Amino acid sequence: MGDAVLYQKYMLTVSTDGETVAYATFSRERNDFLKPVKLTGEQKISVNGKPMNYNRLDSHHMVSYIYSLKLDKGTQEAEFSFVRFKDKDIKNKLAKNNSLAISLPADLETLEAGKAVNWNGAVKASDETIEVVMVKDDKKQYSEYFAEVTPDGKGFVFKKMPEEKGKFKLTIRRYKTVPTTQNDRTADGDMTLCYQDTKTINLK
Fold first, then answer.
1. Which residues pair with 54 in a beta bridge?
2. How far is CA 18 from CA 44, 157, 189, 195, in A?
3. Residue 73 CB partners (closer than 8 Å, separation 6+)
4. What's the pLDDT tens digit per position in 61-100?
5. pLDDT tens, 128-150?
């Protein structure tokens, strides 16, 4: 890959059931992670001292990341170690922050168009992103629908509902992104902490 700098992008996802997965990807160009770079030769990426898997996706896989590793449920932080050259170890750390924890109501069984649902967790902050997606995934079709965050930042609402009925997978995610602290020369990067919860709902 020559002498081009590499931009780093990391994520740590924490699910309600405690599953914790670390992700990483690299790019030659700033914010162009649709053209990821695979590390070769002496280059490597590890998290908490363990090599990350190339292109092995989990059940909550993030398609924009090409390295991942499932961590132990009790893990409180992820220290990413990126070796570009053998004499340079670039380290960046993401720690769990329980104030970002978010989950869907335990008694939520269905959804109605225009009816707001409050999540369990803090109100959305200005530096956070909340994503709520409803997915229909079966042998016949794949479709997804996104909700909007309510003005008070406490919940979400689907303005329109799908015409099809039946079971859907509903996922809520809270993202908070900060800059990397160590970089490959002039390149910068970012680190995202994501809390998420998923449940099956039934549209009648």
1. 67
2. 27, 26, 27, 10
3. 18, 19, 20
4. 566 789 999 999 889 999 999 998 887 899 999 999 999 9
5. 999 999 998 676 777 889 999 99
**Geometric angle at alpha carbon 52, from 91 and 102, rounded to 5°:** 80
Question: Is the CB of residue 52 less than 8 Å from the CB of residue 67?
Answer: yes
R_g (Cα) of the chain, nearest Å = 19
Across 69-88, b (16+ Cβ under 10 Å) vs e yields bebeeebeebebbbebeeee
Cα separation of 97 and 14, whole Å? 10
The DSSP element (H or E) to which 27 belongs, if any, is strand 20-27
List the structure tokens of 190. 């970012």
Query: Is residue 177 exposed (0-12), middle (13-18) or buried (19+ Cβ within 10 Å)?
Result: middle
Q: How many CA atoms lie within 13 A of 187 on its CB side?
A: 20
Distance from C-alpha of 160 to C-alpha of 146, rounded to nearest angstrom: 9
CA–CA gap between residue 136 and residue 21 (Å, rounded)? 24
Sheet containing 128-137: give its strands across: 53-54, 67-71, 20-27, 7-15, 189-203, 166-179, 128-137, 142-146
